[in-house]
Design brief:
heterodimer, A: 221 residues, mainly alpha, 0% strand, B: 202 residues, alpha/beta, Rossmann fold, five-stranded parallel β-sheet, three-stranded antiparallel β-sheet, 6 helices
C-alpha cells in the first residue's frame, strides 16, 4: 500500500504539477475578491475565512476527476480491482485519496496563510482557517472519490464530478467556516463546529472509499 | 487446482455476447480462445478475471485454498492496455506492481532481462516503442506469481523474435504447473494447447 501511495505521489508531482494548477487557481480566486468587493478592509477581514474556504474547496475539486480516470485509461484500474482479494479495494481507494490529498490539497493548506493576508485577516483568524482547512479538506478528497468513481467511464466527467460532489461537501464547508469565525468573533464557539467537521472527515474517510470501491467494481466494462 | 467454467455467458450493455461456454483447465494446461472479431474473446477473459459480472453459469477455481480464493486473486490479466504509467520508469512501474500484487516471483532486473529489456529499465515508460511497452507489460507477469495467466492478444506489437521469447516464457510457466488462457488470432507455438472456438453469433 505504501508503494501505491508513493507511486501516486510521484505521478502527481512528475506529470506536470497538478498541485501547482490548484494553487494558481486558489491564488486567482482569492486575489480577485478584493477587487470585486472593493477596498473595505473591515469587510474583507469579515468575509476572509469564508472566501478562503470557498477558494480552497473549488481548487480541491479541480484535479479530482483524474483520480481514477488516469488509471482506467492505461489499464491499471483493472489490476487494482482484480487485486481486491489481497488489498481490499476500499483501502486502495483510501490510499489513493490520501496521496491525492497530499499532492494536490495539502499545498493549498500551506498557501492559505499567505492568501489570508490578502484578505486582511488577523493572525488568529488565519491560524484558525488554516487549521480547519487542514482537518476539513481530507473529507473533500474522500467524498470526491465517490464522484470520481461514478464518473470514471465518462470522457468529460470533470464538471460532472464537481456537480455531484459539491452538495455533499456543503456541510464540511459550513462547519469549517463557522469554526473559523468562532475563533475570531467573541460569542461564537470554535470547538463545537470544529469537532463536527472532524467527525465529518472521519465519517467520510470510511464511507467515501467504500462507496467509491462499489462504484468502481460495477462500472467495469 | 483447476480453473473451471461451466455454461458461462457474458454480456455487455445488456446484450449477450456469448453463452454456453465451458472449459476445464488443469495445472500445466493452456487454452487458446479463438474466433472472429466480436466473438467475445476479450469479454470471456474479463468475465473470468472477475472484471465483468457473470451473466449466467459459473466460473471458479477449485481447491485454490486460502492463497488463491477466487479466480481474480489467482490471475494475471494482460489486456489490450499495458497498465503502466508513462511518467514513471520501467523499473519503477514493475517494482510498484511487484509490491502491490505481492507473491514475489522474479526480481525486477531478472524479469526485465528475460524479456530482453535489461538495458532500458531506467527509461520512462513513455519513451519505449510499442513492442517494448508490450514486453515490459509481459515482465509484469513475471515479477509476482499467479498460477493463471489471462492473456488478451498478448503478442500484439511484438516482432518475431519477441514472440518466440514470449512463447518460451509461457512454456516455462506451464512447466511450473501454471495455467494460461489466451485469446489470440495467431498461433502461439504451445504444444498440447486446447482450443476454444468462440462462434460468431453476432
Amino acid at each position: 500500500m505504501l508503494a501505491l501511495y508513493i507511486r501516486d505521489l510521484r505521478l502527481n508531482i512528475r506529470a506536470g504539477g497538478g498541485a501547482l494548477v490548484g494553487i494558481l487557481f486558489f491564488l486567482a480566486v482569492i486575489a480577485v475578491v478584493p477587487f470585486g468587493v472593493g477596498p473595505d478592509l473591515n469587510l474583507l477581514a469579515r468575509i476572509g475565512p469564508a472566501i478562503l474556504w470557498i477558494g480552497a474547496l473549488l481548487a480541491a475539486l479541480l484535479g479530482l476527476d483524474r483520480l481514477f480516470q488516469a488509471d482506467r485509461e492505461d489499464g491499471s484500474l483493472d489490476l487494482l480491482v482484480m487485486n481486491g482479494a489481497r488489498q481490499m479495494l476500499a483501502f486502495t481507494v483510501f490510499v489513493k485519496c490520501l496521496a491525492h490529498w497530499t499532492a494536490s490539497v495539502l499545498p493549498l493548506v500551506v498557501a492559505a496563510p499567505l492568501l489570508g493576508l490578502f484578505m486582511n485577516m488577523e493572525p488568529v483568524g488565519i491560524a484558525a482557517a488554516t487549521l480547519t482547512l487542514l482537518v476539513g479538506t481530507p473529507a473533500i478528497a474522500f467524498i470526491g472519490a465517490v464522484g470520481a468513481a461514478v464518473a470514471v467511464a465518462l470522457p468529460r466527467g470533470g464538471l460532472l464530478v464537481s456537480v455531484l460532489v459539491l452538495p455533499l461537501v456543503i456541510p464540511v464547508l459550513i462547519f469549517g467556516v463557522s469554526a473559523s469565525y468562532g475563533a475570531i468573533t467573541e460569542p461564537d464557539p470554535f470547538l463545537p463546529p470544529f469537532l463536527m467537521m472532524t467527525a465529518l472527515t472521519l465519517f467520510f474517510a470510511v464511507l467515501g472509499p467504500l462507496a467509491a470501491a462499489l462504484a468502481l467494481r460495477w462500472s467495469a466494462d | 487446482m483447476r480453473l473451471v467454467a461451466d455454461n458461462l455467458a457474458g454480456e455487455r450493455g445488456g446484450e449477450t455476447i456469448f453463452s454456453k461456454v465451458g472449459f476445464t483447465l488443469d495445472p500445466g494446461g493452456c487454452l487458446l480462445v479463438t474466433g472472429p472479431n466480436g466473438a467475445g474473446k476479450s469479454t470471456l477473459l474479463r468475465v473470468v478475471a472477475g472484471l465483468l459480472p457473470v451473466a449466467a453459469g459459473t466460473v471458479g477455481l477449485e481447491s485454490g485454498g486460502e492463497r488463491w480464493p477466487d479466480p481474480a486473486a489467482a490471475c494475471h490479466y494482460l489486456g489490450h492496455l499495458n497498465g503502466m504509467k508513462v511518467a514513471l520508469t520501467v523499473e519503477e512501474n514493475l517494482r510498484f506492481w511487484q509490491q502491490f500484487m505481492g507473491e514475489m516471483h522474479l526480481a525486477v532486473d531478472a524479469a526485465l532481462d528475460s524479456v530482453g529489456l535489461g538495458e532500458i529499465g531506467h527509461l520512462p515508460f513513455a519513451y519505449l516503442s510499442t513492442g517494448q511497452k508490450r514486453r515490459a507489460a509481459i515482465a509484469r507477469l513475471l515479477v509476482s506469481h499467479r498460477p493463471v495467466w489471462l492473456l488478451d492478444e498478448p503478442t500484439a506489437g511484438l516482432d518475431t523474435a519477441s514472440e518466440a521469447q514470449f512463447a518460451a516464457l509461457m512454456r516455462a510457466h506451464l512447466k511450473e504447473g501454471g495455467m494460461i488462457v489466451a485469446a489470440t488470432h495467431l498461433p502461439l507455438a504451445i504444444e498440447g494447447a486446447g482450443e476454444l472456438r468462440m462462434g460468431g453469433n453476432v
